[in-house]
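User: Second chain of the day. Same drill as before.
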Amino acid sequence: MRKGLRLSLLGEFLRFNMVGIINTALTFLVFSGMFRLTGSRIVSLAVDYLFGLLFSYVMNGIFTFKADMGNHRKQLPRMVLTYAVLGVANYFMLIGLTDYLHFNTYLAQFLTVGVIAVSSYGAQKLFVFRNRR
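Assistant: Same format as last time:
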């Protein structure tokens, strides 16, 4: 792999992680606040994912992948599909950890976030924002 390409990918990966750290912190706070208010994991995850989807779409599209953000008709449905698939995966991992392995709900969601984050990077890079400026 050429040195320039490696540096470009490294920069992109670092930007994705910066956005991801902020997004993860914010969505974890949203999840925690909603769970405290409602006691419902599904409601908490739904609000968490809606917020995270919008934040990630804007920040990763502009800052991380430098995508042409004028193409919302293609990119936004791809982002929604990506988040839907990852949301279902998150839900089943959360249920598995809490209902079957008896993890605390907050700890289970904290652990699940790492798996979802790595999957999200690949999906956004290869599927959502594949058309770049």
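The first helix runs from residue 3 to 38.

User: Great, on to the next one.
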